[in-house]
Amino acid sequence: MSGVRAQQKEKTRRQLINAALKQLSAERSFSSLSLREVAKEAGLAPTSFYRHFSDMDELGLTLVDEAGLTLRQLMRQARQRIAKGGSVIQISVQTFMELIESNGNIFRLLLRERSGTSAAFRAAVIREIRYFTMELCDYLQKANQLDADVAYMQANAAVTIVFSAGSDALDIEDKAERDQLAQQTIQQLRFIARGALELSDRRKKLRRNR
Asked: Helical H runs in 115-147?
């Protein structure tokens, strides 16, 4: 019975998470949602909410954690696609844009709470973006044989550019316009990648000549 109850509890918890995400939109931020609205969307009584979350802030922090995890899983999937052949940057941007198109509310949550009024939310979003950046940094360092600080600079710049493009993509409905934005992002990332390789090569030459 305990296993069945645990499964039911997790199912109800997931209903609340999905209900909150579903209600986010260009017009509605998480801070504008009420506990009653989320419970109603999930098909639950408001009292059931407290069996899973102490308040809306705890639910919001859970959503931020999930959004960060989704981003990291997304890029791991991109690397699996890259391993089968293709441009690292092009596949990564395409994969990211697919997330915006299929589940933009996850990304919308990160964007809004990064500059939101809650200090706890801001700290959580910054932490998730840092995890995402460091995972990309490790990949770039190993894949391109870059110095650690050069890999970090490239990763940090790439995340900044991609997040900015993602923010713009959320408001674009025209596919041709969104594709144009993706191509522009790819070119920007290629410029950064070229600069990172050149800087790393110069450093290696300087070390050899010492």
From this structure: 119-144
Residue 176 three-state SS:
helix
Distance in angstroms (rounded) separating the CA atoms of residues 134 and 131:
5
Structural element, H or E, at residue 150: helix 148-169
For domain 1-54, the CATH class is mainly alpha
The one-digit pLDDT tens for each residue of the chain (210 residues) are: 467 788 888 889 999 999 998 888 878 888 888 999 999 999 999 999 999 999 999 999 999 998 888 888 888 888 888 878 878 899 989 988 888 888 888 888 888 777 766 788 888 888 989 998 999 999 999 988 999 999 999 999 999 999 999 989 988 888 899 999 999 999 999 999 999 999 988 888 888 887
Q: Which residue has the tokens 């044989």?
A: 145
Class in CATH terms, 56-208 = mainly alpha
CATH 1.10.357.10 residue window(s) in the chain: 56-208
Who's near 141: CB < 8 A, 6+ residues apart? 147, 148, 151
Query: What is the Cα gyration radius of the chain?
Result: 20
Cα–Cα distance measured from residue 160 to residue 128, given in angstroms and rounded to the nearest whole number: 14
- Tell me the pTM: 0.84
Q: Enter the tokens of residue 186.
A: 């790819």
Q: Where in the chain is the domain with CATH 1.10.10.60?
A: 1-54
